[in-house]
């Protein structure tokens, strides 16, 4: 599947209240994460069943309910799917632990979702507009500095991949046609 600027700009990371409320089996989680993150994954697989099983076994995500995953696990897995593309999984785990010391899972996940949505818009809103690339200021506050830094790092990495794949920044518009 070809990634386009329009597809990236249409990306919406669901807030906590938008996540499924019921329990899900492993493959349902894989499918949901892929559907949510597809616009920003650049044809990469966001998550696999094996990854989920390993993260559960390693204690990277909260314990599951029998063989099903709930909203808490889903929130952690969405965060991991993005962050592991920037940091090693152990650093992702440490970052999540640091964040969870100051906020609830719901608040922490909502910070992530909002930060991802802002970062993607901020990085991609001027791409393909035949003008020089610029990024607005990034605010880092005491409760969001890590979340905002990694979200912007991911969005910038995605832009770098598109520049290379399209043959240069000036070619991104042609690449998407």
Automatic annotation (TrEMBL):
This is DUF1836 domain-containing protein. Pfam families: DUF1836. InterPro entries: DUF1836.
